[in-house]
Protein backbone atom coordinates (compact mmCIF):
# COMPACT_ATOMS: atom_id res chain seq x y z
CA UNK A 1 0.00 0.00 0.00
CA UNK A 2 2.57 2.52 1.07
CA UNK A 3 6.24 3.07 0.65
CA UNK A 4 6.79 4.91 3.90
CA UNK A 5 4.89 5.65 7.10
CA UNK A 6 5.35 8.69 9.29
CA UNK A 7 3.82 9.71 12.59
CA UNK A 8 2.33 12.99 13.73
CA UNK A 9 0.90 13.72 17.16
CA UNK A 10 -2.49 15.43 17.38
CA UNK A 11 -3.87 16.32 20.81
CA UNK A 12 -1.95 13.48 22.41
CA UNK A 13 -2.92 10.88 19.79
CA UNK A 14 -0.34 9.42 17.41
CA UNK A 15 -1.62 9.47 13.82
CA UNK A 16 -0.01 7.46 11.02
CA UNK A 17 0.52 9.13 7.64
CA UNK A 18 1.16 6.61 4.88
CA UNK A 19 3.12 7.71 1.80
CA UNK A 20 1.21 6.21 -1.11
CA UNK A 21 2.40 6.34 -4.73
CA UNK A 22 -0.37 8.81 -5.55
CA UNK A 23 -0.88 10.82 -2.37
CA UNK A 24 -0.73 10.89 1.41
CA UNK A 25 -3.15 8.58 3.22
CA UNK A 26 -4.02 9.14 6.88
CA UNK A 27 -5.09 6.41 9.29
CA UNK A 28 -8.81 6.60 10.10
CA UNK A 29 -8.20 3.92 12.71
CA UNK A 30 -5.82 6.24 14.58
CA UNK A 31 -8.25 9.16 14.30
CA UNK A 32 -11.06 6.99 15.68
CA UNK A 33 -8.75 5.92 18.52
CA UNK A 34 -8.72 9.52 19.71
CA UNK A 35 -12.50 9.29 20.23
CA UNK A 36 -12.80 5.75 21.57
CA UNK A 37 -9.74 3.45 21.64
CA UNK A 38 -11.88 0.34 22.12
CA UNK A 39 -14.36 0.90 19.27
CA UNK A 40 -12.34 2.19 16.32
CA UNK A 41 -13.88 -0.17 13.76
CA UNK A 42 -17.41 0.55 14.99
CA UNK A 43 -16.87 4.30 14.69
CA UNK A 44 -15.65 3.98 11.11
CA UNK A 45 -18.59 1.75 10.16
CA UNK A 46 -21.07 4.14 11.79
CA UNK A 47 -19.56 7.01 9.81
CA UNK A 48 -19.90 5.00 6.59
CA UNK A 49 -23.61 4.37 7.29
CA UNK A 50 -24.32 8.11 7.08
CA UNK A 51 -25.94 9.32 3.84
CA UNK A 52 -23.82 12.48 3.80
CA UNK A 53 -20.68 10.34 4.07
CA UNK A 54 -21.72 8.10 1.16
CA UNK A 55 -22.49 11.11 -1.02
CA UNK A 56 -19.16 12.75 -0.11
CA UNK A 57 -17.20 9.57 -0.89
CA UNK A 58 -19.09 9.13 -4.17
CA UNK A 59 -18.37 12.67 -5.34
CA UNK A 60 -14.70 12.32 -4.38
CA UNK A 61 -14.38 9.08 -6.34
CA UNK A 62 -16.15 10.56 -9.39
CA UNK A 63 -13.60 13.40 -9.39
CA UNK A 64 -10.50 11.26 -8.83
CA UNK A 65 -11.24 7.71 -9.97
CA UNK A 66 -12.12 6.95 -13.62
CA UNK A 67 -12.80 3.30 -12.70
CA UNK A 68 -15.34 4.07 -10.00
CA UNK A 69 -18.55 2.02 -10.36
CA UNK A 70 -21.55 4.39 -10.27
CA UNK A 71 -24.24 1.65 -10.30
CA UNK A 72 -22.91 0.03 -7.13
CA UNK A 73 -22.51 3.50 -5.59
CA UNK A 74 -26.18 4.33 -6.28
CA UNK A 75 -27.19 1.14 -4.49
CA UNK A 76 -25.31 2.16 -1.35
CA UNK A 77 -26.65 5.72 -1.54
CA UNK A 78 -30.25 4.51 -1.66
CA UNK A 79 -29.76 2.36 1.45
CA UNK A 80 -27.70 4.87 3.43
CA UNK A 81 -29.41 6.07 6.60
CA UNK A 82 -31.71 3.04 6.97
CA UNK A 83 -31.56 1.24 10.31
CA UNK A 84 -30.73 -2.01 8.54
CA UNK A 85 -27.91 -0.53 6.46
CA UNK A 86 -24.36 -1.53 7.34
CA UNK A 87 -21.13 -0.96 5.42
CA UNK A 88 -17.47 -1.72 6.05
CA UNK A 89 -14.49 -0.05 4.34
CA UNK A 90 -13.60 -3.35 2.67
CA UNK A 91 -17.14 -3.74 1.23
CA UNK A 92 -17.09 -0.16 -0.09
CA UNK A 93 -13.73 -0.69 -1.79
CA UNK A 94 -14.56 -4.08 -3.32
CA UNK A 95 -18.05 -3.18 -4.57
CA UNK A 96 -17.34 0.26 -6.04
CA UNK A 97 -13.66 0.03 -6.97
CA UNK A 98 -12.95 2.98 -4.68
CA UNK A 99 -9.39 4.27 -4.29
CA UNK A 100 -9.97 6.89 -1.59
CA UNK A 101 -10.06 4.28 1.18
CA UNK A 102 -7.55 1.51 1.83
CA UNK A 103 -8.22 -1.37 4.23
CA UNK A 104 -5.27 -3.41 5.40
CA UNK A 105 -5.29 -6.39 7.77
CA UNK A 106 -2.59 -7.30 10.25
CA UNK A 107 -0.82 -5.83 13.22
CA UNK A 108 0.16 -2.63 11.41
CA UNK A 109 -3.01 -2.48 9.31
CA UNK A 110 -6.22 -0.56 9.69
CA UNK A 111 -8.29 1.76 7.53
CA UNK A 112 -6.48 4.55 5.72
CA UNK A 113 -8.03 7.35 3.68
CA UNK A 114 -6.84 10.01 1.27
CA UNK A 115 -6.19 13.19 3.21
CA UNK A 116 -9.35 14.85 1.80
CA UNK A 117 -11.48 12.02 3.18
CA UNK A 118 -9.49 11.73 6.41
CA UNK A 119 -10.13 15.39 7.22
CA UNK A 120 -13.86 14.81 6.63
CA UNK A 121 -13.84 11.86 9.02
CA UNK A 122 -11.87 13.88 11.59
CA UNK A 123 -14.54 16.60 11.39
CA UNK A 124 -17.20 13.97 12.17
CA UNK A 125 -15.14 12.90 15.19
CA UNK A 126 -14.38 16.45 16.40
CA UNK A 127 -14.13 19.79 14.59
CA UNK A 128 -11.39 20.86 16.98
CA UNK A 129 -9.44 17.65 16.35
CA UNK A 130 -9.76 18.16 12.59
CA UNK A 131 -8.22 21.64 12.78
CA UNK A 132 -5.28 20.38 14.83
CA UNK A 133 -4.87 17.43 12.44
CA UNK A 134 -4.68 19.77 9.44
CA UNK A 135 -2.14 21.95 11.24
CA UNK A 136 0.16 19.02 12.11
CA UNK A 137 -0.21 17.50 8.64
CA UNK A 138 0.79 20.80 7.02
CA UNK A 139 3.78 21.03 9.36
CA UNK A 140 4.87 17.54 8.24
CA UNK A 141 4.60 18.55 4.59
CA UNK A 142 6.65 21.70 5.19
CA UNK A 143 9.39 19.63 6.81
CA UNK A 144 9.39 17.22 3.86
CA UNK A 145 9.62 20.12 1.41
CA UNK A 146 12.61 21.60 3.23
CA UNK A 147 14.30 18.20 3.15
CA UNK A 148 13.52 17.87 -0.56
CA UNK A 149 14.97 21.34 -1.28
CA UNK A 150 18.15 20.39 0.57
CA UNK A 151 18.52 17.11 -1.34
CA UNK A 152 17.86 18.78 -4.71
CA UNK A 153 20.47 21.45 -4.10
CA UNK A 154 22.99 18.93 -2.79
CA UNK A 155 22.41 16.85 -5.95
CA UNK A 156 22.83 19.97 -8.07
CA UNK A 157 26.16 20.62 -6.40
CA UNK A 158 27.29 17.04 -7.12
CA UNK A 159 26.21 17.25 -10.78
CA UNK A 160 28.03 20.54 -11.25
CA UNK A 161 31.10 19.08 -9.57
CA UNK A 162 31.08 16.29 -12.19
CA UNK A 163 31.14 18.98 -14.90
CA UNK A 164 33.99 20.62 -13.03
CA UNK A 165 36.09 17.44 -12.72
CA UNK A 166 35.51 16.63 -16.39
CA UNK A 167 36.96 20.03 -17.28
CA UNK A 168 39.95 19.33 -15.02
CA UNK A 169 40.53 15.96 -16.69
CA UNK A 170 40.27 17.35 -20.22
CA UNK A 171 42.34 20.51 -19.85
CA UNK A 172 44.75 20.05 -16.92
CA UNK A 173 45.73 16.37 -16.91
CA UNK A 174 48.14 15.03 -19.56
CA UNK A 175 47.19 11.69 -21.08
CA UNK A 176 50.24 9.93 -19.66
CA UNK A 177 49.91 11.29 -16.13
CA UNK A 178 49.95 8.45 -13.52
CA UNK A 179 46.68 7.82 -11.66
CA UNK A 180 48.21 8.92 -8.35
CA UNK A 181 49.03 12.33 -9.75
CA UNK A 182 45.61 12.58 -11.38
CA UNK A 183 44.04 12.29 -7.96
CA UNK A 184 46.34 14.98 -6.64
CA UNK A 185 45.22 17.32 -9.41
CA UNK A 186 41.58 16.66 -8.61
CA UNK A 187 42.19 17.32 -4.92
CA UNK A 188 44.00 20.52 -5.76
CA UNK A 189 41.15 21.81 -7.93
CA UNK A 190 38.55 20.84 -5.34
CA UNK A 191 40.46 22.85 -2.78
CA UNK A 192 40.46 25.85 -5.10
CA UNK A 193 36.69 25.92 -4.62
CA UNK A 194 36.96 25.16 -0.91
CA UNK A 195 39.42 28.00 -0.40
CA UNK A 196 37.34 30.42 -2.47
CA UNK A 197 34.16 29.77 -0.51
CA UNK A 198 35.16 28.40 2.90
CA UNK A 199 38.65 29.86 3.27
CA UNK A 200 40.25 26.49 3.99
CA UNK A 201 41.16 23.21 2.32
CA UNK A 202 39.42 19.90 2.91
CA UNK A 203 42.37 18.70 5.01
CA UNK A 204 42.36 21.83 7.13
CA UNK A 205 38.66 21.33 7.84
CA UNK A 206 39.19 17.65 8.78
CA UNK A 207 42.06 18.60 11.10
CA UNK A 208 39.83 21.18 12.80
CA UNK A 209 36.87 18.77 13.06
CA UNK A 210 38.27 15.32 13.93
CA UNK A 211 34.98 14.09 15.41
CA UNK A 212 32.78 14.85 12.39
CA UNK A 213 31.98 12.44 9.58
CA UNK A 214 31.92 13.41 5.91
CA UNK A 215 33.59 16.46 4.43
CA UNK A 216 33.35 20.23 4.58
CA UNK A 217 30.61 20.36 1.95
CA UNK A 218 28.35 18.00 3.88
CA UNK A 219 28.12 20.69 6.57
CA UNK A 220 27.44 23.59 4.20
CA UNK A 221 24.06 25.31 4.37
CA UNK A 222 21.82 25.63 1.32
CA UNK A 223 22.97 29.17 0.55
CA UNK A 224 26.58 28.00 0.42
CA UNK A 225 25.63 25.06 -1.81
CA UNK A 226 23.89 27.38 -4.27
CA UNK A 227 27.01 29.55 -4.37
CA UNK A 228 29.25 26.49 -4.70
CA UNK A 229 27.28 25.26 -7.72
CA UNK A 230 27.88 28.63 -9.42
CA UNK A 231 31.58 28.57 -8.56
CA UNK A 232 31.99 25.08 -10.04
CA UNK A 233 30.51 26.21 -13.35
CA UNK A 234 32.68 29.31 -13.47
CA UNK A 235 35.83 27.37 -12.62
CA UNK A 236 35.09 24.83 -15.37
CA UNK A 237 34.74 27.66 -17.91
CA UNK A 238 37.98 29.34 -16.78
CA UNK A 239 39.85 26.03 -16.88
CA UNK A 240 38.76 25.60 -20.49
CA UNK A 241 39.98 29.12 -21.23
CA UNK A 242 43.40 28.22 -19.79
CA UNK A 243 43.32 30.68 -16.90
CA UNK A 244 46.06 29.83 -14.35
CA UNK A 245 44.95 28.37 -11.03
CA UNK A 246 46.08 31.31 -8.84
CA UNK A 247 44.11 33.74 -11.03
CA UNK A 248 41.05 31.48 -10.93
CA UNK A 249 41.24 31.24 -7.14
CA UNK A 250 41.33 35.01 -6.79
CA UNK A 251 38.39 35.50 -9.14
CA UNK A 252 36.36 32.71 -7.53
CA UNK A 253 36.90 34.21 -4.10
CA UNK A 254 35.66 37.59 -5.30
CA UNK A 255 32.58 35.97 -6.85
CA UNK A 256 31.93 33.96 -3.66
CA UNK A 257 32.05 37.10 -1.53
CA UNK A 258 29.66 38.97 -3.83
CA UNK A 259 27.19 36.08 -4.19
CA UNK A 260 27.13 35.22 -0.49
CA UNK A 261 26.48 38.86 0.35
CA UNK A 262 23.58 38.94 -2.09
CA UNK A 263 22.16 35.54 -1.12
CA UNK A 264 22.24 36.19 2.61
CA UNK A 265 20.80 39.68 2.23
CA UNK A 266 18.10 38.96 -0.34
CA UNK A 267 14.67 38.22 1.15
CA UNK A 268 13.64 35.78 -1.57
CA UNK A 269 16.83 33.77 -1.05
CA UNK A 270 16.12 33.51 2.66
CA UNK A 271 12.64 32.27 1.86
CA UNK A 272 14.12 29.68 -0.52
CA UNK A 273 16.71 28.31 1.86
CA UNK A 274 14.69 28.37 5.05
CA UNK A 275 15.94 29.67 8.39
CA UNK A 276 16.53 26.28 9.97
CA UNK A 277 18.52 24.91 7.03
CA UNK A 278 20.81 27.93 6.85
CA UNK A 279 21.79 27.20 10.43
CA UNK A 280 22.80 23.65 9.58
TrEMBL record:
Among InterPro entries, the record links this protein to: KilA/APSES_HTH, KilA_N
Short name of one Pfam family: KilA-N
Q: Which residues form the KilA-N domain?
A: 4-140
Q: Can you say what this protein is called?
A: KilA-N domain-containing protein
Organism listed in the record: Cyclonatronum proteinivorum
**Upper taxonomic lineage:** Bacteria, Pseudomonadati, Balneolota, Balneolia, Balneolales
